[in-house]
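[step 3/7] inverse_fold.run input=structure_tokens len=244
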């Protein structure tokens, strides 16, 4: 039986989602919990995608195969009783045998939180990026609209990106304020390695006057990571939702 789960986690204490040798990862913790439920038998977990060290998730989606005949509504209870407090199974359901959390995803939503203050906040330091400089929101919004649509995002992904096709479609980039934080909301059909963080870093440079809004168009056209802005840190980023 194949089980699909929605998962939330605080990425602060993890080296990222994906299993890595001798490092604490979200996938490693979930697979360890499943092994306990399966009396030591290894159970492989597949996710909609990886998140980097320090990155959080409100709506990561995973799937795994099991021989246990546990009712769907019992899986969150059973797993949450074993998992560490910074990982929570929000919901679970039986999936079709050929369902795949990664390959069937048709889109994702990410959000990035920025704390616009010169004063550090110890309660936000792991969950929002402190940006102590004055910014012009209208310039950021103007630049952001140049990124909406289908583009080759080579300039806005890490040089370590392994895929050859770097064309992606961004349906939405919007900004809003929430509880004193500036929130960037991104919705698209797929995202490259560090893509959201590089876009945020670039847009903040536009907002602070380091770059012109119109420069975003030429950065796209150059298809060269060196021309985009700095990569914003991971702790401000949240995988918000995965669409199927």
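[step 3/7] decode complete -> sequence:
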């Amino acid at each position: 039986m194949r089980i699909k789960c929605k998962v939330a986690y605080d990425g602060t204490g993890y080296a990222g989602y994906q299993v890595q040798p001798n490092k604490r990862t979200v996938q490693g913790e979930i697979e360890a919990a499943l092994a306990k439920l399966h009396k030591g038998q290894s159970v492989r977990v597949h996710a909609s995608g990886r998140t980097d060290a320090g990155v959080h998730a409100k709506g990561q989606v995973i799937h795994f195969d099991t021989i246990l005949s546990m009712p769907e509504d019992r899986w969150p209870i059973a797993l949450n009783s074993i998992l560490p407090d910074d990982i929570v199974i929000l919901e679970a359901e039986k999936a079709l045998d050929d369902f795949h959390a990664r390959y069937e995803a048709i889109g994702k939503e990410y959000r990035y939180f920025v704390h616009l203050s010169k004063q550090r906040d110890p309660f936000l330091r792991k969950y929002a990026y402190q940006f102590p400089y004055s910014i012009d929101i209208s310039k950021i919004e103007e630049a952001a609209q140049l990124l909406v649509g289908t583009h080759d995002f080579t300039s806005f992904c890490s040089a370590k990106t392994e895929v050859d096709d770097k064309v992606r479609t961004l349906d939405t980039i919007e900004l809003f304020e929430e509880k004193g934080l500036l929130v960037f909301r991104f919705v698209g059909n797929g995202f490259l390695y560090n893509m959201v963080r590089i876009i945020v870093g670039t847009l903040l440079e536009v907002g602070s006057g380091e770059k012109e809004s119109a420069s975003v168009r030429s950065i796209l056209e150059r298809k060269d990571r060196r021309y985009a802005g700095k990569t914003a840190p991971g702790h401000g980023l949240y995988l918000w939702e995965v669409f199927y």
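[step 4/7] annotate
The chain has two domains: 2-95, 107-243.
Helices lie at 26-37, 75-80, 137-145, 195-207, 215-222.
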